[in-house]
Design goal:
single chain, alpha+beta, Arc Repressor Mutant, subunit A, Beta-Lactamase, two-stranded antiparallel ribbon
Length: about 260
């Protein structure tokens, strides 16, 4: 495990253990963690026991393996709730959802994933089919989501290329873009139009349109989307009917972000 001078090795190890857990790997054993992090089994067990005692890990009774504990959830929601972009965006997302009758979401980029930080669900019939059990804190691969593409498209080129090199382009839906060059071309189209489209790239039946949210300096902070079931609108109709409203909402939030930064 590489170290930076002046840092705490114990803290680095503890955080590395917590970072090993994700939605694809919710349960991990002591031996796995010791091997993954190049720690002796006794050292790994000592760190894991401490984290479990503090509530950051929880041991599954049957398998004896560990999962993230409630303290991690508390930290995650505290971080999300402290985000200016979430607080500022919330009323705008609700207004867009009320005006259109569709579900509206807000997400940030974390590595090659997006993380949902706000949701305004619609009760319109058919919306339940595209919820995919998503909630605040859910993670999805950025490359096959409208919000992920809306953020990636406007990152500095070097940073964008770095992330593309790390993406595992696997097919998730009927129209997932799995070729890196084709994905770059898609990002170029998004930069030209300012709008990102997901046409059943993440899952069958799900279409969405997204736009980036920027800071006062122009840095992309997040993205919002409007999601529909395929029976509700074609990809073309989605852009024609809702593109302007989605762009306007993202622009309004970006302006509010600028005002917040200028406030004393």
């Amino acid at each position: 495990m590489p170290r930076t001078p002046g840092t705490s090795r114990s803290l680095e190890r503890g955080l590395a253990i917590l970072s090993s857990f994700n939605s694809d790997r919710p349960l991990i054993g002591v031996s796995e963690l010791s091997r993954d992090l190049d720690l002796s089994r006794s050292t790994a067990h000592r760190y894991i026991s401490t984290l479990a005692q503090l509530g950051y890990l929880h041991q599954d009774r049957e398998s004896k393996r560990y999962r993230l504990g409630p303290k991690v959830l508390d930290l995650g929601f505290s971080a999300i709730n402290s985000m200016d972009v979430r607080e500022i965006s919330a009323p705008h997302l609700r207004q867009l959802s009320d005006e259109t009758g569709y579900t509206v979401n807000l997400a940030i980029l974390d590595g090659t994933d997006i993380v949902y930080i706000e949701r305004c669900r619609s009760s319109r019939p058919g919306q339940r089919e595209i919820d995919l059990n998503l909630h605040v804190g859910s993670r999805l691969p950025a490359y096959c989501t409208a919000m992920g593409k809306a953020i990636l498209a406007f990152l500095p080129e070097e940073r964008c290329e770095e992330l593309i090199a790390r993406i595992d382009f696997a097919s998730r839906g009927p129209n997932t873009v799995t070729d890196p060059q084709a994905f770059r071309e898609e990002l170029a189209r998004i930069r030209a139009s300012g709008i990102a489209l997901n046409d059943e790239e993440l899952a069958y039946g799900l279409r969405s349109i997204a736009a980036p949210i920027r800071s006062q300096s122009g840095e992309v902070l997040a993205a919002l989307n409007l999601a529909v079931h395929r029976t509700m609108a074609s990809a073309e109709e989605l852009t024609t009917r809702f593109g302007a409203a989605v762009s306007r909402t993202a622009r309004d939030i970006s302006l509010r972000m600028g005002h917040r930064l200028r406030s004393p």
